[in-house]
Design brief:
With 129 residues, the protein is mainly alpha-helical. 79% of the residues lie in helices and 0% in strands.
Length: 129
């Protein structure tokens, strides 16, 4: 379990470091850098979702994956001229869906936690008792 936390922490520090380096360098002039960063964020989110058993951590991993999708949408919107007007609108819709997902997901997790007294998803096999 400690290995998962350490690996995820190192991966997040790596991605943040890449983002800070690109900001210090004045931003990237190519779409590839943004897509690589988006792919890394999505991979970290997917790993977190598949490796964790805590429902709150799984919701946070889903949010990380949605942020990776937003990054790629905004990057395509900046570099492809025909997507400029629609890219921001699509990203705002994804942000709204992510907020709704977090709200509903957290409400479900809290309701189940009140009944089962555990945040682990392995214990959520039966909704009624």
């Amino acid at each position: 379990m400690i290995r998962v936390f350490v690996a995820t922490g190192l991966a997040v520090a790596f991605v943040i470091g890449l983002g800070l380096i690109s900001l210090v360098a004045g931003g990237s002039r190519s779409l590839d850098a943004y897509l690589v960063l988006s792919g890394l964020l999505f991979a970290i989110g997917m790993f977190g979702f598949l490796a964790r058993r805590n429902a709150i951590s799984m919701l946070m991993s889903i949010e990380l994956m949605l942020n990776a999708v937003n990054l790629s949408i905004i990057a395509f919107g900046s570099f492809v001229a025909t997507l400029r007007p629609g890219g921001s609108v699509i990203a705002l819709v994804v942000i709204a869906v992510a907020a709704a997902e977090a709200t509903v997901g957290l409400a479900i997790v809290i309701a189940i936690y009140r009944n089962k007294k555990t945040p682990l998803v392995d214990e959520y096999d039966a909704m009624r008792q």
